[in-house]
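name: query_chain
kind: protein
chains: 1
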Amino acid sequence: MWTRQLTALAVAGALVALSISSAAALDRRMQINNNTGYDIVQFYASNKGTNDWQEDILGRGILPAGESVIINIDDGSGYCKFDFLAVFEDDDQVVSRNNNVCELNQFNFNP
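structure:
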């Protein structure tokens, strides 16, 4: 009887570990498309578990108007839902909330 219970616990543990590792292994790379007429000079992606925009993903670079870039949104937290903030060359800011980077493969900033 104990053997059956231990086997059931081992199987359940393996299934939990498998589901956690598969969620962590999701591809969080996204193509960010700037379909506006202005360069994006800063881009931030922060998971739903934080109240901080973290660091500018573009660093010293920009995302020119009409161009695209592929960004790995994976911050090691395991989160799939992220808020995006784009800062444009004219100081306009656009915030998009609750983007599921585990399901989306691209995101558009449109005029």
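note: DSSP finds one helix and six strands in the chain.
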